[in-house]
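Table 4 source record.
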Amino acid sequence: MQEFAAMKKKRSQSPQRKPRQDALRNRERILEVAKGEFTRRGADASLEEIAKQAGVGAGTLYRHFPTRDALIEAVYRSEVEKLAAAGPKFAAAMPPIEALRGWMLLFVDYVAAKHIIAPALNSVVGGPSRLYEGSRGLIQGAIDELVKRAKKSGDVRSDIEASDLLRAVIGVSHLGSGPESQQSARRLVDILIAGSRSLK
């Protein structure tokens, strides 16, 4: 009897760990596929097709994202979180000036992605402004830390403000869409970096 109870307890405990990892992987796959589909087809992209391409059932998709709006919001928030998380990652792996440059280049890509999914974002109840509210703080925090580190190392001039750099890179990123605009934006990031360097 005790052996049966132990087996039952083991059965009830063991599946709980794996689904958490599986659920996380499923969620990430759904978000990645959804970003691509919203990019290509806008807000009307088929949720069933998204589930199929992600390799999950429709029920799994709806468990994670009960509505279309919930999925669109999650795609946008995921992009913002990746951008914010990249700051500490770059800082840990690169010299200060290179970490700042790498993050600014990633920001250019982020803005391009935001423009691409803009029609889908506009379909969300309340519009995209509600979604953008929390984004700025995360993004500002990431560039603040990178600039502070680059100042401390002496790579960047002491009079450089992170908010000014952020405004500049936002302006650079709004040059237009397409590969040529992206390349131009990336070149302008290098000009911004060059202009920010301290004169040693």
